[in-house]
Structure formats: structure tokens, C-alpha cells
């Protein structure tokens, strides 16, 4: 990256960073939730943004943590919020190659470039940028016999990375040759026929979705977030048998819970349900406490489908996103539903309920096919779109 481990402070918005050849990929972003450090918008003075409002960000890639938001366009990355113990701060980072994706936790932001290189930026330290080196483990390298019958294997070498994800206590990377890294240590290598589609992390666990629709889980599962039917820790990826054979199209993980959507339009959630984030009732008959931990995926219904005027229209979930203690679901019609903790308005609901333990309608987008992206931070939610939200328009007329 330019300047080695140095970053450059900036005082202008992300939309000014984009070059003309990537403008068409930008999304406008709506946000709600925790804004104590100006991470959502420096132009909104509210500590809490209760309802979805458009913010001053135009970005192709965006992540949100408890204390900062990072937005990327092309080779440019802007981070704003609580940086080096200073609120409403901004940092501009220029990359040597186009940014492919971002991942972040409270302490650092990971930056994956198109050339397979990963950089790490410490949010609350002065270390600046550092390249993260992943080296293959010889024990996982395929061994071949030479013409003389001797077994040979390749030496450990720097690995190009395809996907990254991280949480407060875990960092995961997938190499181009199916290597799996926890931190910078290789823990597994998938066979060639297993190809990853999506990689996500909670505070201390990871999920990987394959193109076949299977989910693998590993990390800390002491709150049932691995979905393996037991409470424990797995050092390497393990297939979630409970939903093996059901084609999953989207996964999400955050905090201590996990979620998925099947090709049939079913929502599955598992893990910690402390604030109704699984969309499962916390009390039976309003008095009897239900379990707080679910160790296998549970099918969850959206009880009140109020998003479509046409009752004959078949509405079903297509995407899902999770925050520390909340879950957001996008429907094929463009509607967004939410469940879980709402202390900071992170659900965007038109009420001040502390939590909701069932999915409630939030807002709806028009002509949204493949244009809407939901990003859930720990205590906030951002929605990127090229279209207009009905609720946003109606509330501001």
C-alpha cells in the first residue's frame, strides 16, 4: 500500500474518492443505530439514529463495527468514527490494488486486495497498516510420489487469499487453493471440489457456505452458535449435519448467533437468543422463560407478512444479516424485517421497544432485485441501495 504502514488523514466524503470508472457500482446508504462517535454520519449529531436515514457515504464495499465504519471504492478506503481514541475521526488509505472486500472487528479492519494480499489496520493504535502473511502448512500440502517412488511435497509458501472474515476474538481466511486459516495458522484444507461461496464470523466463531449449499462451522460454540448439536469448541471446519442436504443460499453470523436462508425460502437461526435475535419467542405464555441457547438450527417463520398489498404475491426471504444481538431479513419483494435488540434503534422500527423476539416489518424498497445490501454492525444497521425506500420517502415528504 502507498506509504508503507502509513495512512493519510482526510476531510472529505467517500464519494469524492471514487474514480469515474467505478461510480456505477456505488450504492447510497441508509443507516440507523449507534452513532456516538460519528461513525454513521458526522452530519447527524444524534447519539442514536432511531430510523433509517440516508448518510454521507457512497461505497461499493462497506463494513460497520461498534465504533467505526469503513467504506471502500476502487483503491480507496475511508475509515471514520472512534480512531486512536479520537471521536469523529477520519482516515484515508490508498491501496496499491483494487480492494476486493473488507472485514472488521472492534480492534482492527482487514483489507483484501484483488491480488490476494491482506492488510490489517489497527483502529485504536498507531501501528498503521501491516501486511498479514499467511503461509501454507506442509502437513496439509498434497504429497506426490516422484518417478523414483519418493514422496515429495511443496515447501511452505505465502498464500494468496480469496476470502476474509473476522470477529472480536477470531480471524479467518480462505486461500485460493482451499486453505483454511484461523489467524495466520493453517488449520485445514478443503478438497478441490469444495468451493466456498460465503465466509462470515461472529465474536468467536466462523461459518463457511459452499456452492453446493452446505455450511461448515468452527471456533467457539459455547452458546450453541456452531449449530452442531453440542456445546463445545471446534478447531477446524465441521459440517452442520442438521441441515446438510438442504441447499442454503445465504448465511450470517455475529455476536454469539448464526442464521441462514435456504433455497426454499426458509429461515434458520441458532445460538444465543438473549434478546430475541433468533426471531424465537423468549417467553411462553408471557411468563415461562424459553431456552436462551439453541444448539441446532431452528426453522423460524415471519408470522405477519405485511409487506405486499397483493396477497397472492409469494414473498420469501432471500438475504440475511446479523449484528451483535439482532437479525435483519430481506424479502424478494424488497421488504426488510428485523428481530432482536433495539436499545440503540438498530432495527429501524417506528417504536422504542428495547427488543422484539419476532420478525417485524421495517421498510420496503422498490425495484430492488439484486440491488440491496444489508450490513449489520454490532449496534447499528446499514442498507445500501440504488433505489428509493418507500418508508424513507414517505417520512420525509
TrEMBL record:
Cited Gene3D superfamilies: Regulator of chromosome condensation 1/beta-lactamase-inhibitor protein II (2.130.10.30)
Tree of life domain: Eukaryota
PROSITE patterns recorded: RCC1_3
InterPro entries: RCC1/BLIP-II, RCC1_domain-containing, Reg_chr_condens
Residue stretches of each RCC repeat: 213-264, 265-333, 334-387
UniProt keyword list: Receptor
Protein name in the entry: Ultraviolet-B receptor UVR8
UniProt source species: Musca domestica
